[in-house]
Fold this sequence. Notes:
Strand order of the largest sheet: 2-1-3-4
Shape: globular
CATH class: Alpha Beta
Order of helices and strands: EHEHHHEE
CATH superfamily: Glutaredoxin
CATH topology: Glutaredoxin
Helix content: 25-40%
Number of helices: 4
Distance between the termini: 17 Å
Amino acid sequence: MKRIYQLNTCDNCRKLIKAFEDRNAYEIIDIKTQGIQAKDLDFMKEIAGSYEALFSKRAIKYKTLGLKDKQLSEMEIRQYILDEYTFLKRPIRVDGNAIFIGKLES
């Protein structure tokens, strides 16, 4: 699987993708419009080691929902990411069994 998970409205994502030379070799997924499939998230977790590694604590909803004051389990984190695209760190590049979180280059 060769995919880049990103948000079209994110300036940082657009800048990184524009500078990434191999972008045409990847399926680019806009997480806001296309969402994220549970099986894809689970695959990314296997590579990354945890759902927490994929979870964005910078999302506005993280603070507004009071999540910063809670101890979230891996399954709770997984569900938050599936329910709300904003909780997935971005961009994420999946290249076979390699994952790059928050960047596209190795």
